[in-house]
Amino acid sequence: MCGNESVHNHKSTSMAHSSRVPLNRVNIRDEFWSYYINLVRDVVIPYQWDALNDRVNSAEPSGAVRNFRIAAGLEQGEFYGMVFQDSDVAKWLEAVAYMLESDPDPALEEIADGMIDIIAMAQQEDGYLNTYFTVKEPGQRWTNLAECHELYCAGHMIEAGVAYYRATGKRKLLDVVSRFADYIDSVFGTEPGKLAGYDGHQEIELALVKLYQATGNERYLRLSRYFVDQRGQKPSFFAHEHKERGGKSHWPDGYAALNLEYSQSHLPVREQEKAIGHAVRLLYMLTGMADVAAETGDESLLAACRRLWDNIVNRQMYITGGVGSMPQGEAFSFDYDLPNDTVYAETCASIGLIFFAQRMLRISPEAQFADVMERALYNTVVGGMSRDGKHFFYVNPLEVDPKACGGGNRKYDHVKPVRQEWFGCACCPPNVARLLASLGEYIYTVQGDSIYTHLYIGGEAKLEVGGQQVGIKQTSHYPWDGRISLEVTPEQAGSAFALAVRIPGWCKQAVLTVNGAAYPLDAGTVVNGYAVIERSWQPGDLVELNLDMPVLRMHSHPLVRANAGKVALQRGPLVYCLEQADNGPNLHEIMLPREVQLEAGREDLLGDVVTVRAEVLRLRESDWNGELYSDKPTPEAKRETVKFIPYYAWANRGEGEMTVWVREQ
């Protein structure tokens, strides 16, 4: 499979798709996002480096850097942490690389270079690189792929190596991961003498495509496609592997080894119809599938991606862009099973959803993909980190009562009413860092002679269209209002190309002008949710888009039991919630009348946000007669004014109740 066989046997040419926009071509200067990007650079990356080096005394120890030092022979000691602890260092390095690509920092680069030197020393002579199996279980490589994350850790280190090479031009880590990938290629495959296995936690697939794109070596693309194609084949590799180990499992319950749906290994990927199993694994798998489809022209893979996208977005996604509702296995449950208080919705899963959406946009610029990317980004992902950059959510509930968290009811054990400093399983904090550090990759794509604007984030970009440079200066106060301007400066006056601007799905009315003249928004100009402006451009041409941004009352599909009779508020891309800090406890007593006016206004709160005020009805415990049940009429609800804040901003003012969905009267 991974020898000389062509990667294009499903179709003779790759699909038309856009390539990555280099981060040094995009300079973000945005009222909303610059705060978070500066926070990642100035606070998050230094804080996480301290955490990885066990210098945050109030947080759980990591051991991740020390594990590499031990594997490199620089220290004596025992491996510490999870079997996938290496990935935290890799994701931190990847975030650093994106920052360096955007804004060179010699001091930070020197720290990263030092870590890369240690990683290179920890690599084994044959190219293998994994501190757990080097330090703790030598001789047990590749014996438990279902549970032990070897290929997952390899994938994250490959992503870091590619990102660091692109940022600095330094090949040391790229050479390390290329040697590792070559070794993996010598181990896995369907040829005699090779291991016909695949990863338990998907990640290697998308990483190998990045390595192929950086090096031009088709060996890595073939290997990625092998892992995609091999998953779910019968007889089950994981069942065989488990038997070969004599039933021994890394984890006490053996869940990952025996439950094939958990790792999406129950069927070949092209036959899968519904999102099932561990949510992060599925989204990383789909990202890799989309990458392979784009590079090889595999229409059957793309069809599977679209089928699973539809199931996730239309049946299993929270209004906040959270996915994976079930704490058991951090997994998708079943269609329309979206509880708000026991929800899991891991931060990493929404990040995976953004990765997947971006890849689908590169293949086919359709606003549905950018709408979901935006929803997850502005709500769950940015909400996964506190405004101080030092506290994080692993789980993202839509309803919280602190009394229930740790109060004896074990079904809420995973829910935290405040963000944590660090985690024993610390996948989410560095994932947030690497996504926000690379945010410039998600704003635009170029396909053919068209520039697509997917996200409304202020700043300047230099994009290549038809062999020439085009400057785009974007200005807005998004997400607080919908007025966006794009100043277009082509390298050559009179250049003909298209600029496509997204009309978000939440927007019911939009006005578009070009140099002050109205531009029609109709079936002839709006294609797949993008208003396409085709013209010969002059330097300084100004496109202005005004998106109507009222407060919307959002309702769930009738089969979502948890939201029956309830309403949520959304304004622009932001979902809103009630928080105890503004409205007192017992938020479940609040009812929002259907016809009441919803007043949005800017407020000096939580970073100068737009809040929404409404007059509601509220039942009060004090009006009850003290009995648990009564046949007497319920006391009349009292009128009061409440304040809704953006969901992402909750839990920045101490511990308290929160709810997104409110009873509607």
Automatic annotation (TrEMBL):
Residues 553-663 form the Non-reducing end beta-L-arabinofuranosidase-like GH127 C-terminal domain. InterPro entries: 6-hairpin_glycosidase_sf, 6hp_glycosidase-like_sf, Beta-AFase-like, Beta-AFase-like_GH127_C, Beta-AFase-like_GH127_cat, Beta-AFase-like_GH127_middle. Residues 26-441 form the Non-reducing end beta-L-arabinofuranosidase-like GH127 catalytic domain. Residues 451-549 form the Non-reducing end beta-L-arabinofuranosidase-like GH127 middle domain. It comes from the Bacteria. This is Beta-L-arabinofuranosidase domain-containing protein. It comes from Paenibacillus haidiansis.
